[in-house]
Each structure stands twice: as C-alpha cells, then as structure tokens.
Write a structure and sequence with these properties.
5-stranded antiparallel sheet; 4-stranded antiparallel sheet; 3% helix; globular; carbohydrate metabolism; C-deglycosylation enzyme beta subunit
C-alpha cells in the first residue's frame, strides 16, 4: 500500500552512548492505513547491505517510549498510527560507517480481517556523511 514511504531516509543517524557509537537509528512508518496496536506488529526486520540484523538488536521507539520486538508482542495499550514516524534503533558496535548503504525494512502485521499475515518491504539507499 504505502510501502515506499516506510523508511524516512533523512533521519538516519548513529546512536552514541558515553561518546561511543553503539548503533544507528532511522525513522520508520507503518504502511497500514488504520494503524495497529503494537502487539499486532509481529516483526520489524532490518537488513543492512545484505546482512540481516538479529531481532534482538532492534528497538522501536514511539512517543518517547522504547520496546524490544519481544516486548511489543505483549504491548496491548499502545498503537503505531498511520503516518506516525517511529524510531527504529539497531544496536551495532561502531554504528553505521560513513557512505552509502542499502537499508531494507520489512514489517509483518497481523490484521484481523485478513486470512494471512502480510509483510511489507521497503528498500532505500541511504547515506551517512563522514
């Protein structure tokens, strides 16, 4: 539906803690027009330059609150609304190197009236300045 708008390219940045890069982050949108409760977002898979990022290394932040993907499975009180930009953080020592990268985002959603579980994908070439 709105797959091409899932990754917000202009939001890519390294994440630092105590002066050291511990990963990178980017803005992401849910491509489902009604939005969903977080427990209905079954996966937020990230692939960088052809390498799949382990699920355990991915975090999602909405409105100042952060979840692991496992924690999202049991989050019944919060939603990811259509058009709302969440921050996806990938924990990766050293963060993202300068230059161009191929970033893929795949979101698997459980939608009550569909007899299957759709996965939507977006691939963008992103760049991080030196």
């Amino acid at each position: 539906m709105f797959d091409q708008h899932m990754i917000c390219e202009d939001t890519v940045a390294n994440v630092a803690e105590n002066g050291a890069a511990i990963g990178f982050s980017f803005g992401a949108r849910l491509p489902y027009y009604r939005g969903l409760g977080l427990s209905m977002v079954e996966d937020v898979a990230v692939t960088l330059d052809g390498e799949a990022i382990p699920r355990e290394a991915v975090r999602l932040t909405l409105r100042g609150r952060t979840w692991t993907l496992d924690e999202m499975e049991n989050e019944h009180g919060d939603r990811w609304n259509f058009g709302e930009v969440a921050t996806v953080t990938v924990l990766q020592d050293g963060g993202l190197s300068a230059g161009e990268h191929r970033l893929e985002l795949a979101e698997r959603m459980r939608i009550s009236y569909l007899p299957f579980v759709p996965t939507t994908r977006c691939v963008k070439t992103i760049s991080l300045a030196a």
